[in-house]
Every structure is written in C-alpha cells, then in structure tokens.
Amino acid sequence: MSERLDLVTLGEALVQLNATSTGPLRHVHRFEKHAAGSELNTAIAAARLGLRAGWIGKLGRDEFGEFILACARAEGVDVSAVVSGDAGPTGLFFIQRGFPWPGSSSSIYYRRGSAGSALEAGELEADYLSSARALHFTGISLAVSPRLRAACWEALKTVRERGGLVSFDVNFRRKLWDADEARTEIEAVLPSVDVVFCALADATTLFGAATADEAVQALRARGPTRVVVTDGSDGALLAVGDRVVRGTAMPVPVVDPTGAGDALAATVLMGLLRGWDPEETIRRACIVGSMVCAVLGDYEGVPTSEQLAAIEDVTWVER
Questions:
Q1: pLDDT tens sequence across 97-149
Q2: Pick from 203, 273, 296, 315: nearest CA to 49
Q3: 125 is a domain residue
Q4: What is the pTM of this model?
Q5: How far is CA 20 from CA 29, 53, 252, 255, 256, in A?
Q6: Active-site residue 231, yes or no?
Q7: Alpha-carbon gap, residue 206 to 219, rounded angstroms
Q8: What is the CATH number of the domain that holds 44?
Q9: Which residue from 57, 64, 254, 314 has the fewest beta carbons nearer than 10 Å?
Q10: 151 in a domain, yes or no?
C-alpha cells in the first residue's frame, strides 16, 4: 500500500444466511445472504465512516470466498493482504430468528475446519501491518483456532513494535469456548491492548462485574487505557484516562442487532484516531450502533460520515 492505513482488522469472515421468517430453521424456506464476521464488519463500518481500512483473513477458493471479497471491495475495504488457499472452505453461519422465544435470534455456525480458522502467523505481511495506525481483533479470533490465535498475537506484536494502537473486542461466544478458557486467553491479551470493548454481559460472565461502572474498573485494572462497555438499549460507557462518559442508544425498532457492537467499535476507533472529544465519540458510536440494529444484516445499516452528520442534526437525538 502506498498510502498508510488508518485501521487494519484481522479475523475470520463468513457468509451469513439470515432467515427471512421467524421460527426454527427446519421450517424456514428463504434466507438472505450477507458477508459477515466481526472484524470484517468493523473494517466495513470504518470505511463507510471515512477511515482508510483494511481487513486480513483467509478465504477458501470458492464462490463464497469470492462473494466476501466482492462485498469488502465494494465498501472500500483494502483486501490486498487477504490469503486465499485450499486449507478449507469459506465458513458459513445461519441466523435463526424469533425462536425459541419471540424477539430472539441465534447463530448456528458451520465453520469448523474453515479456511478462516487456518490463517497462520507466517502468512501475515509485516509491512502491511506496519502501514496501519491501528489494529483491531476480537476474542472470536482467539477462540476459533490455535492457528488464528497465534496470528493475532503476531499481528499485535508487529503493530506494537511499530508504535501503532491495538484495539480488542472481548466478544465472548459460548458456542466457541467456555468461560474459563476465554478468561485465561483474554486476560493474557489485555495488558498489551490500548483500547478494549466489552459487553456488560460478557464482563459479568468473565470478570464478575455487576454494573457497567464495575466492568470499566475491571477492564482498566487489566491494562487498557481506553475502555468501552456496551449495554444494549442502555447505551455505552467510554472511559479515557480519568473521564468516564455515557452514550445513549437511539430509540429504533430493532430488526437485527447483530453487528451493532462492531459498528460502535469502528466509530469509537474513528473518534480516537481523529481526535474527537470523548462525549462526541461515544454519542456518535451509540447512534451508529443503533442504526445497525434497525436494518437486516451485520453492517448494512452503517451510515456514511455525511449521513451521520445529518442524523446528529435531528432534534430528537439526545445530546
């Protein structure tokens, strides 16, 4: 890359098949196809908002891999460091909606042995990583496979050695690993992280935090200097130094909450890289996360920077 990137994300991208009707998948006949995966979502959201963003991952030599590449390119994400190989197929997951209780959704993964889980540390391009002002990855990447976990550690080491910012989203997934293993691996990473994102529910499970304020304290104590704790419709807290500020979620009809946290993370990272005030940063991040919830798909509801500015002018957005 001739131009330095603002943000590089690293992790597995998958194809999401999202049920268009509610109920158990055995009775669903139609699905919408989307590109997905937490780190890819974050890269796309960052690019829409105006950052120069790249994504690193491994895809199978198959049509689903081509679909993900096409989606990323169309959103302005640099994919020049993506690896394509015969290690396995591109991963899939299904979204089951409104079952077993109304208003719920659940992910059913078909990613064991996937290409994305086979990314190796030796396949990373050090110069590419060094071109980025910031690196972002998640606990999902630590959980998917030992090889991908090692790649995350190598990327973290490379970026830190070159003076870059390291961002990490806890993103605990019970379907990928248990709480004890997750806690061990995540606590090993946190001292090397500058920015951490964590849902309150995950902070409760992993660190025993009962409130968002307790979650901020627990995460700060483990090393990161900037902490974001999200709490669904109750918004989010951003702690920077001695300041703790709250952002309020927008009152939107929730169609699909998947990906909202990734979009919120991208907005916070943009704020940190662009020098926004903490109140401005978390307010905008909560707006963007709320917008994603109102649209089907992981990133489709993310606004451009111009659209975000227009939304901020609407009088009912809480200041």
A1: 889 888 788 899 999 999 999 999 999 999 999 999 999 999 999 999 999 99
A2: 273
A3: yes
A4: 0.94
A5: 8, 31, 20, 11, 11
A6: no
A7: 11
A8: 3.40.1190.20
A9: 314
A10: yes
